Amino acid sequence: MTIPTVTLNDGGVFPELGFGTYKLHGKEGVDAVVSAIDTGYRLLDTAVNYENEQEVGEAVRRSGVDRDELIITTKVPGRDHGFDETLASARGSLDRLGLDRIDLYLIHWPNPRVGRYLDTWKAMIRLREDGLVRSIGVSNFTEEMLTELIDETGVTPAVNQVELHPYFGQSALRAFHAAHGIRTESWSPLTRRGELLSEQVVTDVAAAHAVSPTQAVLRWHVQLGATPIPKSAHAGRQRENADVFSFALTDDEVAALSGLERGRLGDMDPRTHEEM
Ligand SMILES: NC(=O)C1=CN([C@@H]2O[C@H](COP(=O)(O)OP(=O)(O)OC[C@H]3O[C@@H](n4cnc5c(N)ncnc54)[C@H](OP(=O)(O)O)[C@@H]3O)[C@@H](O)[C@H]2O)C=CC1
Ligand SMILES: O=C(O)C(=O)[C@@H](O)[C@H](O)C(=O)CO
């Protein structure tokens, strides 16, 4: 299966859909990531805090796919914020991944009370200049935080990975991203298999296209211009989730799914939620 791509603001190629790896561990985790690569996923999303960078690196080596086709994302955790700390954190990630380059490096959470995301961002710029990282971006950043990074460094993040699903459509933040050429990446795009998938509007839209509810929801992300990164440990579901490029929702269907808006899944407002 071939997943279409877009071009990031730094010229990098970026898939319209990727693979989440949170909670994939051990041999089963490696197998799941290999299976995702076999299916056609090229964007893989890990983080120091997922404690599975080794598994992702092993899967990359086990897959028969050319390294340059893969976009390996990892993230600097809150406890490593700061200029020197971020440089060291990246080297730790490269060691665990067993790779010589991170393709997309993100600040996992802004942790505003720590107050060091700007220094962290400056280190990421350095890592990109040094060739250890290809693209740099952030996760869970608000419009105000993005503005600060851009104003202080002149470097606009390529990606902002944020909570996004039909219950939390992030329309204002997405408009800001569009205005600044920042690619939106959707975390928990399926709401971790919550009640969303049995909402009447979701099952109706799915039935209209003879697809599954997860496919209808993932197609909604694609049509918003966001890159969802669904996680599944199962090859059949991985295939189902990636198979969203041969049908299109109508504008009314996109609007109907957006009409499910009700807010975040949990209390994860990045202005107050901290993850170290
Ligand atoms: N930057 C951040 O702060 C965050 C980033 N993330 C990233 O986003 C990724 C995706 O989000 P995540 O929270 O994992 O949740 P998702 O919304 O991707 O949902 C994953 C859940 O849905 C199930 N599932 C997947 N596909 C199907 C299907 N076709 N049918 C039925 N069930 C399905 C999975 O089960 P099963 O595996 O059994 O198939 C799993 O339980 C993460 O893995 C991580 O990489 C997530 C949260 C925060
Ligand atoms: O999955 C991620 O990237 C996270 O940041 C998680 O820690 C997520 O926030 C979570 O599951 C917290 O319970």
UniProtKB/TrEMBL annotation:
Limits of the NADP-dependent oxidoreductase domain: 16-260
InterPro entries linked to this entry: AKR, Aldo/ket_reductase_CS, NAD(P)_OxRdtase_dom_sf, NADP_OxRdtase_dom
Keywords: NADP, Oxidoreductase
SUPFAM superfamilies: NAD(P)-linked oxidoreductase
Membership in a protein family: Belongs to the aldo/keto reductase family.
Protein name: Aldo/keto reductase
Organism: Microbacterium elymi
